Amino acid sequence: MIISCGSRKSRKYKSDGNLQAVPAGELYIGHYHRSLRAAAEALTSSPSQILVASALHGLVTVSQPLVPYEMTIDHPSSVTSDHLRQQANTFGLHSAEVIFLGGKRYAHRLLPAIPQCLRPLTGGMGTQRGQCRAVAEQPELRRQWWEEAAALLRDHRRPA
Asked: What percent of the chain is modeled with pLDDT above 90?
């Protein structure tokens, strides 16, 4: 499971006034990201199976400490598809069924790195939040998404 990060971030400060690192799973606090996270948790058996696609850091585990940052995926210094491809190799994603929950701009960066990645969310942010609620509530929809991810992986493995 991969979910996109969010622009709203928790800000905790150390005693010296500098921002404190917090686990990625606690850093992103916006409603959209929380919807993605709830859907991802419904789709997986463990939070350790969820990765966050960070505009700055690329793929990170939900337990990885991150200092709050300001970066969008459209920024010239944001993570590249090549960097995401390297990270996907490290996480073993090229031989895995992968579902990505997030917006088009993140998908555009991620799909060249993980071509068999299923991107089931459509429409705008509000529509996507509704789709996240639906998959969290409907076991049949969760099963369908994983079947679609498995089919994409099979097709990706098939020789050309």
From this structure: 89
